[in-house]
Amino acid sequence: MTKPVFILNGPNLNLLGHRQPEIYGATTLQDVEAMCLKHGAAIGLAVVFRQSNHEGVLVDWIQQARNEASGIIINAAAYTHTSVAILDALLASDLPVVEVHLSNIHQRDEFRHHSYVSKVAKGMICGFGPQGYVLALDAIKQLTDTHS
Ligand code: DQA
Question: For a 10 Å CB count at each end of the chain, is N or C smaller?
């Protein structure tokens, strides 16, 4: 049986729809999850969708993905810009990785321009809001089809 794609979300994304809606929009994380499960099913991908505010929990899930997932889509949120631990876990996973951000991080504060995740991601989708997750699923579908 084909392994699922893990979609992992970092800190404060549980507040999506309520947090800075002028930047992140009105869609909640539950809505994003529903979009991902629906699109995943349409293109033949099982999806495991998770969010944590804790760096170590995200590292644990990436280590779990190493054995249990076919690929990783990750919006590491603020940890994108700070976490060598998440970068190392992604490197160790040996899986195709697609990085997502709701906002266009390059139009924002300078400290958001650098991403540790980008060092390991095959590519990054940013600036398209929740639709970015759907685009990421299409991207990971192509990558996992060629990876397996
Ligand atoms: C974000 C961008 C990050 O800079 C920020 O810390 C987030 C969300 C995004 O999806 O646009 O929490 O990853």
Answer: N
